[in-house]
């Protein structure tokens, strides 16, 4: 691969990275402005389930979008498929000026389809342009932090400029959503195509279909474990701000800032650990215990000692992202992996993960509205604890030869 081709590959990966960051900013900002949006469309507060409909619709749309992503890339090719995904993000801008809540929700669903396509298509681009395993882990780590980076930017802005940002939610969301237009133009300007189904000249293509993926027990365990992870991570940044502000002594904007900020620091630790000759399962298990335990402590002390909650919210954010790049790099480390197989695997993986997270979120918000804060939090802790048990069922992807070398 020439330097020019590799440079163009890095450019496209950067555009995809920034596109998903802007999607995350738009999603988190919209969730942070839920009270103002509800007031505009309904004239005041509404039931928690209705208030969360946008988040449900976004995650539901992502389930179907991820399943379709592999089909679309095979039909259109990587350039057009990824460009379509970035283009659909523009619906986040259209949604802001629609006349009612349900039209707004539908447009945000289309935006979510675009976001799902972008995150799935990162994998074949990485597989095609990045060959060095150490460099691949770093790129995948950068890709895992996209949502976190967007959430962090929004958390900082809402912590420092809360009064200004909530005065006109339409103007605020217009700013975040407009960034997508710049990235779409950049993609049209310099993106190139490649054969997503080609493995290499030395290794013939082993066709991998959704039928193969559905029969893969690892993929189901992998997806359900991530559903548990997402329930913790997404709710802590998207839904818990309003919950903390209403039910506890904790400031929701501060917890968002700490979780997302320390998550970025944790990413660098995850890269360092991932590039060491360490087995994957023990690392994921131990860091998973820290992640679940620290957020549980955050909830326990939320009405007793807010400072303790803030400290452990930071620990949770750090732990989330220590393991995140290692976790999502596992399929890349499986034997016989290639761009087409990765696209199919991650399409079903994200679908399973977001379906599980959506179901958990609906039950959680129902309990919050009908049974109250404590039962909802008990259910929440039970769901996120599943992650710790599921990672123990994963295959060990670290090659034995490397482990022997590391011991020696």
TrEMBL record:
Compartment(s) where it occurs, according to its Swiss-Prot or TrEMBL record: Cell membrane
A Gene Ontology cellular-component term: plasma membrane
First-listed, main subcellular location of the protein, grouped into a coarse class: membrane
The organism's place on the tree of life at top rank: Bacteria
One GO molecular-function entry: transmembrane transporter activity
Pfam families, per database record: MFS_1
Recorded topology in the membrane: Multi-pass membrane protein
InterPro entries: MFS, MFS_trans_sf
CDD domains: MFS
Entry keywords, A to Z: Membrane, Transmembrane, Transmembrane helix
Residues annotated as transmembrane: 9-29, 49-73, 85-103, 109-130, 142-162, 168-189, 218-240, 252-271, 283-304, 310-330, 342-367, 373-394
Keyword Membrane in annotation: yes
Protein name stated in the entry: MFS family permease
Organism: Bacillus benzoevorans
Organism placement in taxonomy: Bacteria, Bacillati, Bacillota, Bacilli, Bacillales
């Amino acid at each position: 691969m020439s330097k020019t081709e590799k440079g163009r590959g890095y450019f496209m990966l950067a555009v995809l990275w920034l596109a998903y960051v802007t999607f995350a900013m738009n999603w988190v900002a919209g969730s942070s402005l839920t009270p103002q949006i509800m007031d505009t469309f309904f004239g005041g507060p509404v039931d928690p389930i209705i208030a969360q409909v946008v988040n449900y619709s976004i995650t539901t749309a992502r389930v179907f979008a991820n399943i379709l992503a592999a089909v679309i890339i095979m039909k259109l090719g990587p350039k057009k498929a990824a460009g379509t995904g970035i283009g659909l993000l523009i619906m986040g801008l259209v949604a802001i000026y629609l006349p009612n809540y349900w039209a707004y929700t539908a447009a945000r669903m289309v935006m979510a389809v675009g976001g799902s396509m972008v995150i799935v298509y990162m994998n074949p681009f990485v597989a095609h342009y990045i060959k060095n395993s150490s460099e691949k882990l770093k790129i995948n780590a950068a890709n895992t932090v996209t949502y976190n980076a967007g959430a962090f930017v929004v958390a900082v802005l809402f912590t420092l400029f809360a009064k200004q940002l909530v005065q006109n939610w339409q103007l605020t969301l217009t700013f975040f959503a407009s960034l997508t237009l710049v990235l779409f133009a950049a993609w049209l300007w310099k993106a190139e195509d490649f054969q997503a189904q080609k493995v290499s000249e030395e290794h013939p293509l082993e066709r991998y279909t959704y039928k193969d993926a559905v029969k893969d027990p690892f993929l189901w365990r992998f997806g359900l474990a991530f559903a548990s992870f997402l329930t913790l991570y997404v709710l802590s940044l998207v839904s818990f701000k309003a919950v903390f502000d209403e039910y506890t002594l904790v400031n929701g904007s501060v917890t968002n800032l700490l979780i997302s900020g320390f998550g970025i620091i944790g990413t660098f630790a995850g890269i360092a650990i991932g590039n060491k000759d360490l087995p994957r399962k023990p690392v994921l298990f131990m860091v998973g215990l820290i992640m679940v335990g620290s957020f549980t402590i955050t909830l326990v002390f939320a009405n007793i000692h807010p400072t303790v909650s803030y400290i452990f919210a930071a620990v949770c954010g750090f732990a989330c992202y220590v393991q995140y790049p290692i976790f999502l790099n596992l399929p890349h480390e499986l034997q016989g992996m290639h761009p087409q197989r990765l696209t199919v695997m991650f399409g079903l993986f994200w679908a399973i993960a977001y379906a599980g997270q959506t179901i958990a979120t609906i039950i959680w918000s129902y309990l919050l509205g009908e049974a109250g804060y404590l039962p909802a939090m008990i259910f929440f802790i039970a769901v996120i604890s599943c992650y710790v048990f599921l990672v123990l069922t994963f295959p060990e992807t670290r090659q034995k030869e490397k482990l022997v070398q590391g011991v020696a």
